[in-house]
Inverse folding.
C-alpha cells in the first residue's frame, strides 16, 4: 500500500467501499476496493472471478490484491464514468436521441464480456461463477 495514496470514497456496494487511489511513482489514478466482510465467500468469489477474467478487454481488470491493515484491498483501473452517465450525458432522462451506433457499441462490449464469462462457466462446470 506504500506505493499508493488513498483518496476519497468513490462509491459503496453491498460488499465493499471503493476509494480513489494514486500511484505515488507515476501519478496514475486507480480505484481501490476494500472488502467489508474479510476473506469470506463473497470476497473469494469476486477475487477468483476477476482473476479468471483477467485479460478480457471489456471486464474491469484487477491489477493487484493485498491486505491493508487486515482488510482485503483490490486495485483496479479508475473508470471516471458509468454507462448510465454516458447514456444520460447532455440528454437529461430523454433516451430518444441516442444514436444507434452508440447503443450498438456498448451492447457489443457487454455481450462480448457476458459471452466470455458463459464460455468459462461451461468449461469449468456450472458452478464455477
Ligand atoms: N474501477 C472503478 N472506477 C471508478 N468507480 C468505481 C470502480 N469500481 C467501483 N466504482 C464505484 O464504486 C461503487 C461501488 O462498487 P462495488 O464494486 O463495491 O459495488 P457495485 O458493483 O456497484 O454493487 P454491488 O457489489 O452491491 O452489486 C460503484 O457503483 C462505482 O460507483
Amino acid at each position: 500500500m506504500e506505493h499508493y495514496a488513498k483518496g476519497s470514497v468513490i462509491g459503496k456496494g453491498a460488499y465493499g467501499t471503493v476509494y480513489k487511489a494514486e500511484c505515488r511513482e507515476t501519478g496514475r489514478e486507480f480505484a481501490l476496493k476494500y472488502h467489508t466482510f474479510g476473506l469470506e465467500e463473497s470476497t473469494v468469489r469476486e477475487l477468483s472471478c476477476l482473476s479468471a477474467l483477467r485479460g478480457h478487454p471489456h471486464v474491469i481488470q484487477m491489477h493487484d490484491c493485498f491486505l491493508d491493515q487486515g482488510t482485503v484491498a483490490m486495485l483496479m483501473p479508475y473508470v471516471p464514468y458509468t454507462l448510465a452517465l454516458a447514456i444520460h450525458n447532455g440528454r437529461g432522462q430523454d433516451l430518444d436521441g441516442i444514436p444507434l451506433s452508440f447503443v450498438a457499441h456498448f451492447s457489443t462490449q457487454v455481450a462480448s464480456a457476458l459471452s466470455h464469462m458463459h464460455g468459462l462457466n461451461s468449461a469449468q462446470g456450472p458452478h464455477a461463477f
Observations:
- The radius of gyration is 17 Å.
